[in-house]
């Protein structure tokens, strides 16, 4: 990691041009910077101490970014929380961090974009881990309490510089005279994927379009008709976009958060032949993207290959010989989990971050994901990856989406449940799907129950959520066609 990596706040506050466009209108870069500076002063006046956690409600507006920058400007630590989160979740995060101050949106039309509120409680205790921290990001684990990942300011600033170098496209002066990108971001700013895309765009003096929810038709129309340099979206969103019109304008598609299959990459390049698809793999704990893969239509064989790509600069990977777990060593890793030293030591061991994902590393250094260790289905003693089953059934010509989960079964230990979203006009039955799967997958990996729906359940990040699928099945919210 370069010691000379410029600070992310200084880069954004020094940028010229561009700004943020959201559902309320536009904030120019000058207005965004003024709001951030005013918010920092308001926090100081409210008594914010150095390295004190501050809650930042997120609702998909330009003020969200101003509040995150203001918190950095005050020397505090941002704790982004979604405005629509359950009250219990918000209470738990506030209690975990000890945050007494909230920096939230005011009124844009009254030129008071940010306001500080206080719970009236005492200042939280000093924690050495928060010295030099930029943010505490809470991960959405499927079980147990959320974990507060502490992100170092210097490390995140250096990571943004590394991402800038890795993802900056060749510039055509005739199309892009100032090198300032136009980015569409339908991802939430609570999570690190949305944050780094937003910050990187602003650092370059670009224009960031924050989508108010995910409107596939509106985004597809923009891609077909207007200049868009970057679209950042998770694969589930991209699959929905494939049902809309395509286009021949160049765009760099940034995607990650779940495995990006070869067939999906091919479909994207067929739909947008001038696009480049950047498949990115990383964790909040590793400071975001660690593995990079880029595909475009000029290499027709690339999309047929399966894999996550190769490590970025300064990043090393290995697998655990006993379990096959992928482990990552990176100079951009988290400082640790807030107030959870035992979990920190378990996850960040000897400088290697344990990912919880099973993988294989090829001789050329490329990495292929083989499953999620914690999501493996134990069916009659056989360990089965839901990812493998999903990847197979999404290649069926009548299937749009597939999502797999294991549920307790008195006979098998765990049974394989598969949710299928048929393509528009598709007519497919469970029996037909199982006959089609014969010879394509081992018998013990074939689904025991097949469900049908018009969409897959999504988590707060927009990713397909296997835990949510399991809950729907347990609650009887989905019917099933049982395997004969």
Strand count, sense and barrel status of the largest sheet are:
9 strands, mixed
Overall mean confidence score, pLDDT: 90
Strand order of the largest sheet: 2-1-10-9-11-12-13-14-15
**Residue ranges: pLDDT <50 for 5 or more in a row?**
none
Based on Cα principal axes, name the global outline: globular
What fraction of the residues are assigned to beta strands by DSSP? 25-35%
Regarding quaternary structure, what we see is single chain
Question: How many DSSP helices?
Answer: 13
> End-to-end distance, in Å?
57 Å
Radius of gyration: 23 Å
- Name the structural class: alpha/beta
Which bin fits the share of residues in helices? 25-40%
How many extended strands? 27
Task: Report on this structure.
- The chain is α/β, with parallel strands linked by helices and 484 residues long.
- It is built from 13 helices and 27 strands.
- The chain has helices at residues 8-13, 29-45, 62-73, 87-97, 153-167, 192-203, 216-225, 235-241, 262-271, 341-347, 386-393, 430-437, 466-474; strands at residues 19-22, 25-28, 53-58, 77-82, 101-107, 112-118, 133-139, 147-152, 182-185, 207-210, 230-232, 252-256, 276-283, 288-296, 310-311, 316-319, 325-329, 336-337, 348-349, 352-361, 367-372, 377-379, 382-384, 399-409, 413-422, 449-452, 481-482.
- Helix 2 crosses helix 3 (62-73).
- It is globular.
């Amino acid at each position: 990691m370069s010691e000379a990596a410029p600070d992310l706040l200084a880069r954004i506050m020094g940028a010229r041009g561009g700004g943020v466009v959201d559902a309320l209108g536009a904030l120019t870069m000058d207005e965004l910077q003024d709001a951030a500076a005013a918010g920092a002063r308001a926090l100081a006046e409210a008594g914010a101490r150095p390295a004190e956690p501050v809650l930042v409600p997120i609702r998909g507006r330009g003020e969200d970014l101003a509040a995150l920058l203001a918190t950095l400007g005050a020397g505090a630590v941002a704790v982004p929380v979604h405005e629509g989160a359950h009250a219990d979740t918000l209470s738990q995060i506030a209690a975990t961090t000890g945050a007494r101050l909230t920096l939230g949106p005011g009124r844009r039309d009254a030129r008071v974009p940010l306001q500080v509120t206080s719970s009236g409680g005492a200042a939280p205790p000093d924690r050495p881990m928060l010295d030099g921290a930029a943010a505490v990001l809470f991960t959405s684990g499927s079980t147990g309490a959320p974990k507060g990942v502490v992100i170092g300011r210097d490390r995140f600033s250096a990571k943004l510089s590394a991402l800038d170098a890795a993802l900056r496209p060749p510039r055509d002066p005739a199309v892009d005279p100032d090198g300032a990108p136009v980015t569409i971001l339908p991802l939430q700013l609570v999570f690190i994927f949305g944050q780094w895309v937003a910050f990187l765009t602003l650092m370059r003096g670009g224009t960031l379009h924050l989508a108010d929810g995910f409107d596939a038709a509106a985004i597809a129309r923009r891609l077909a008709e207007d200049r868009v340099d970057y679209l950042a979206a998770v694969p589930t969103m991209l699959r929905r976009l494939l049902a809309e019109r395509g286009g021949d304008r160049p765009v760099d598609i940034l995607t990650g958060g779940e495995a990006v299959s070869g067939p999906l990459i091919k479909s994207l390049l067929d739909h947008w032949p001038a696009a480049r698809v950047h498949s990115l793999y990383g964790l909040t704990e590793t400071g975001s993207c660690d593995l990079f893969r880029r595909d475009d239509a000029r290499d027709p064989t690339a999309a047929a290959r399966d894999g996550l790509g190769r490590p970025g600069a300064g990043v090393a990977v290995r697998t655990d010989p006993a379990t096959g777990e992928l482990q990552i060593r990176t100079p951009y890793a988290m400082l640790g989990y807030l107030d959870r030293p035992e979990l920190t030591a378990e996850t960040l061991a000897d400088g290697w971050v344990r990912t919880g994902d099973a993988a294989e590393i090829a001789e050329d250094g490329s990495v292929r994901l083989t499953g999620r260790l914690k999501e493996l289905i134990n069916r009659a003693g056989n360990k089965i990856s839901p990812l493998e089953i999903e990847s197979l059934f999404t290649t069926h010509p009548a299937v749009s989406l597939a999502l797999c989960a294991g549920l307790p079964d008195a006979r098998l230990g765990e049974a394989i449940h598969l949710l299928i979203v048929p393509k528009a006009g598709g007519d497919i039955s469970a029996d037909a799907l199982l006959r089609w799967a014969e010879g394509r997958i081992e018998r013990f990996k074939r689904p025991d129950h097949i469900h049908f729906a018009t969409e897959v359940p999504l988590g707060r990040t927009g990713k397909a959520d296997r835990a949510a699928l399991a809950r729907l099945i347990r609650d009887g919210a989905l019917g099933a066609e049982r395997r004969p």
